[in-house]
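worker-03 picked up job from queue 'complexes'. Input manifest follows; two sequence lines, order preserved.
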Amino acid sequence: MNAALRYLGQAVAYAAFAVTLGYFSTSPAYQQLPPDYALIKLSFSHAAQRKQPCRERTPEELSRLPRNMRIAKDCPRERSNVVVEMDMDDQTLYHGVLPPSGLAHDGASSVYRRLPVRAGTHHLVLRLKDTEQGDFGFIRDATVTLEPGRVMVIDFKADAPGAGGWVLHGVGQP
Amino acid sequence: MIRAIQAVAQSLLLRLDNLFNHLFGPESNPLYQLGAITYFLFWIILGSGLYLYAFYRTGVQEAFDSVEAITHAQWYLGGVMRSLHRYASDGMVLTVLIHMARNFAMNRLSGFRAFSWITGIVALLFLYISGINGYWLVWDRLAQFVAVATTEWLDWFPIFSSPLVRNFLIQESLNDRFFSLLSFAHLGIPLMMLALVVVHTQRVSGARTHPSLPLAVGWSLMLLGLALFRPAVSQGRADLSTVPAQVNLDWFFLPSYPLIYAWSPGRLWALIGGALAFLLLLPALTRTRRPREGFRITTVPTVRAFSAKPGETILEAGLRQGVRLPYVCRDGACGACKGTILHGEVEYGVYQAQTLTQAERSAGRALFCRAMPLSDLEIEYYENELQKQAPVRLLTCTVHAMRRVAPDVMMLWLRPCTDEPLRFFAGQYLDVLLDVGARRSFSFANPPHDNDLIELHIRRIEGGRFTSHVFSQMRVGEELRIEGPLGTFPQDDDVPTIFLAGATGFAPVKSMLEHRFHVGSRTRMLLYWGVRSRADLYMADLASAWQREHPNFAFVPVLSAPLAEDQWQGRTGLVHEAVLADFPDLKGFRIYACGSMQMVQAARPAFLAQGLPEDMCISDAFLIAAQRDAAAKVAIA
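worker-03 finished. Artifact:
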């Protein structure tokens, strides 16, 4: 192979490599979400109520305990599951029973759900129960408008002002 | 199944090698230097990264703004640096993957090579972590996608008390310190990777870490061209209130990300974990049954002995143990490592068919880069190329002339009884073979280009059998049997050189100097010639003539025991002490010390103590040890 052909061949080889690098470093484009969809992110971290309330220890119980552990109240650490439901336009979009974290099941219950939905106006009902007994203690009923490509984050803070502890980020409300 | 895949891949690779050998030549075939190219790309990434780091600002807003400023406000430098950083990183992924595929195809991953294979895979993981981490820093739409997708993927493992992805729910979740953490990680992870790659490389005998110059230039130009014609740009400021619905992915670093959503994070974990486990197990799956013990390899005419581990090629074994067998591609394509198996059996391995013909195999030839011993071997090996160019010969010579030039020094001129003159290099020597099996060594005193006759300077040794014969009985026309040339001598001519000659140690120095004068050397050269008295300076006139004719040469005679009748006005004492007195700092010099063992043993430590680098002190005593161990800076005078 003569020198000119060799150099030409080398140029072609380098060009092929450059084209490979240049193209695949950005292409083909990846479509993560269809154009007419929006995204709901349901995510919160909430510590539920204790499974059992504190109680007073009897004098007999206290006397059986080592001297340094004689505390009058006995408070079991274990927390209840958090039950959460999310309905959209009268259809259940999510239902979850979230156990508390930690080896002693005394930590917060957490959830993260990524829910692509069609853009538009929707009726949402959010419910949360954080006690062992009883019904849903935190309910939020809202009509929201989701624009294409928007992210609506649904958070929960029990002490948040407003209705039911539910916090909606990034949403237009009619 | 794996063997079948390897066989197909080998066949394809050999064809590709062949094509690239035609285009680039074996010495610059990129497929033979994938590791070296990867190193080269790392240095580009490091250099461009440090530049970008100087202008990068850590902050939720500042990160994106500063990268935009680097890219657009100083497109000619910052923009180019960013693009080089991106494309060199992508190129690194590509070269590493091809490197892996090549080693898999060539079945170079089991046995003692498993260590390099496994450390290579771990280094690859670091490369991916580092690259993905780098994309976060830009904090554009792609960074947002990568950050959210990564944390969603990591959250599949229920080990975090609160999902990591909650850090990217809303814009307010982020703070500036997060970007400081990211930038520190982007420095630390690549450095850890580099440390791992160094370990990975160190275990490979003679591994190349710098590509050939043409390849380095070619890759630099290619990356620069890419940076100018298709600069790397950001994809819009990150906004956590919207979905980056469509992103331009870097498919070298992020090919698995779409699977997080197309499948599920759990399935992607299974895929990556399974692939990783498979890769880590590959050395065991491809292991070839070999004897547990290695084999012994001995070489002739340069006598060396070394061992080959099971599965190790002759070349790898040699390089590992300091035997400098020649090679270029190490892939059975260029033929530079082709050698002769004198005794023993080998497995020839995979190689380009035209590189080693069947006729050559039948004649005992093999490619040492691919051949693995199946028994103890004896192979042909010359210490270096010099020996190959000047092969050792057994010759009969006649004494052409003899002249007594000093009371104890006889100059002999021998004429080889052969049509072909004896080829040798300045500084080499020959052995005169005596009847009873004894031999005597003498340096060539004539330069290699003037080799019709062989010039020897012989000093009379009291009671010496051969030298006594030379001084008393030898006559012109007498026949002598010689073997030579023997030994090697470095030919470096790049720094000022001091020749230290003791008595007839002048002979090899004369050969080297005349050779240098012949080739027009402009290096500064000094000759310190030490003898007892004036009469022993048997060629002082010649040395003085050199000094007159060559401005870069100086001659310093030194007498250790001048006689009264010498009326000596010049330097006295031990010759090496004259050098020490003239040069308080010997750094920057090379010294050839040719003479008696006593002179060399006294001179060498004194020179080293006065700043002469150890590898710049080349002497008789050093030579003997060096021949065994290093094969380079050696000489026998």
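worker-03 released lock.
Residues 621-637 of chain B have pLDDT under 50 and may be disordered.
Chain B touches chain A at residues 20, 22-25, 30, 86-87, 90-91, 94, 145, 152, 155, 161-163, 165-166, 169-170, 218, 221-222, 225-226, 229-230, 232, 240-252, 257-258, 261 (CB under 8 Å).
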